[in-house]
Structure formats: C-alpha cells, structure tokens
Amino acid sequence: MTHSGTALRAEPSGATATADRRPQDPRPMVRFEKVRKAYGDLVVLDDLDFEVAENEKIAIIGPSGSGKTTILRVLMTLVKPDAGHVFVDGQPLWHREVNGRELPADERHLRQVRGDIGMVFQHFNLFPNMSVLRNVTEAPVHVKRMPRAEAYDRGRELLDMVGLGDKLDMFPAQLSGGQKQRVAIARALAMEPKVMLFDEVTSALDPELVGEVLGILRRLARDTQMTMLIVTHEMGFARDVADRVVFFDQGRVAEEGPPSKIFTEPDNPRTQEFLRAVLDH
Predict the structure, then answer these.
(1) pLDDT class of 11 with cuts at 50, 70, 90
(2) Contacts by 138-146 with C-beta closer than 8 Å and gap 24+?
(3) Whole-prediction pTM value?
(4) Which residues contact 19 (CB under 8 A, 6 or more apart)?
(5) pLDDT surpasses 80 at 14
C-alpha cells in the first residue's frame, strides 16, 4: 500500500544518503517567476524567482517577515500573489492557459494542482472531534475517493511509521504536542503529495518534544523521493537534512548553497549577521 513518494526504505545505520538524494531531473518541481505579494506598503515577496528540483530537500531560513512562510502559503493557495507565475510539476498554479490565453485559475484548477502538495503547519490543525486514525484518513476518503478500508490500512501504516500505531483510537486532546505534530505529518503524507511543505513545525513544541518530530522529518528527507520545502529555525537540523539552504531577506533569495557553504562561509553580510544572531542565541 505504499506510494513511491512516501515509502520508507531500510538503510544501514550511520549511512549518509546525501549523495543519493541529489535531484536527477533538471525540470523544477516548484518554480516561482517574478512573484510579488504586498500588504499595503509591506512587500513580502519582491519579484521572487525561485526553483526547487524534483526530490530536492530545501531548508528555508531567514528573519521574521522575510517571506519564508508566504512562499508556502502561496503554494497551498492560502495566499494569492499580486503578480508573477507559480508552477508545480510543470503545471501553472494561479493561472490557466486556454487557447493561448492566460486566465485566472478557477477553484477546480486550484484544487487539482494543490492536490500534489501537502503542508504541515506550526499548530497541527487537527480535527478535535475525530480520532487519530480518522484525522489521517478523512481527506483520502472524501477528497481522493479512496475506499475507506484502503484508507484505514494506509493510515495505520503511516501512523506506525511516525511511531503512533498504538494511538489510533485516541483523540487530539489526549496527545502531547509532539504526538499531535506527528499525526499532522501522517495526515499530510496520506494524500501522497509530490511536494511537502513544513512551516516551523517545531516552533510550538516544548523543547523536549522537538527531537521526536525532527527525527520523523530526517527519515522522510533520507528515505523518500518527495520534494521538501522546510521553513525552520533549527539550524543543526537544516545542516543535516538539506540539499540546499536558501536564506531569504526582504522577500528575495539573498543567498543559497549547500549547507556546508552557507553555515561555514556565507558570502552575504545579511546571511552572516543572521547566522551570528541565531547560532549565538
């Protein structure tokens, strides 16, 4: 019942998979072209050009207000850009092309392209009146029309994967913050997305619970073929899992490169200043 995007494979302990995870296909899975978003005089995305390759794991870092979360919200169609184009797996997201004309995307088009994207938020967003298993299986049943028995099998498999196979019948109020976030990850994976977005998924957790969630993300980065965009303030985690680290400042990519370069020899003074502040904190 596994899907190529989310199936986990065994790997010898201690093995590094960085070399295995390099993107193979030059076509970007995600592409922003001159994307702009402003709220009044506050420009949060400033003619942004940005690409993420298939299977690439990107860590997005930067100060508050730099546009990091807005990128994810644009991809989830929660925020509409003011200008520019966004593509997911070659398909336009916010517009349609009909007989050579460019038209705004309608709800059906948005829903179709958004189906390739999963997102895990800071604050879980679980349904409080549903069991853990139902939280994970409702969308596959109602959105993807998956038979309920198949969805339940898949849900149990995913909850086993995130270490919650014994919590199927519990409700969110009975879980710790870390357990809720792991349910949220399983729920996003249940839709078998090509692209997974993670928005500061540990920021609302108590410090002792952060490790259990980061451990799941490490496994996903290492063992799946999904494209991942991870907005994070956990710099050690970003160094461990990312193929590329992208530093955002004032709505643009100020610097990007492999973790070994960004965390040891950043070129941009703003990157240097930001990393000094967060690493000395």
Answers:
(1) very low
(2) 139/187, 139/190, 139/191, 140/190, 140/191, 143/115, 143/191, 144/115, 144/191
(3) 0.86
(4) none
(5) no
The C-alpha atoms of residue 211 and residue 101 are separated, in whole angstroms, by 49
Q: Which residues contact 240 (CB under 8 A, 6 or more apart)?
A: 218, 259
Cβ(80)–Cβ(114) below 8 Å: no
195 in Cβ contact with 29 (< 8 Å): yes
Residue 29's pLDDT band (cuts 50, 70, 90):
very high
Q: Which residues face 57 on adjacent strands?
A: 228
> What residues does 87 pair with on adjacent strands?
31, 92
Contact 197, 120 (CB under 8 A): yes
Q: At residue 124, what is the residue type?
A: F
Query: CA–CA separation, 140 vs 149, rounded Å?
Result: 11
Q: How confident is the model at residue 89 (pLDDT cuts 50, 70, 90)?
A: very high
The DSSP call for residue 26 is S
- In Å, how far are 43, 60, 146, 264 from 252, measured between CA atoms? 10, 11, 40, 21
Please report, rounded to a whole number, the percentage of residues in the chain having pLDDT higher than 90. Answer: 74
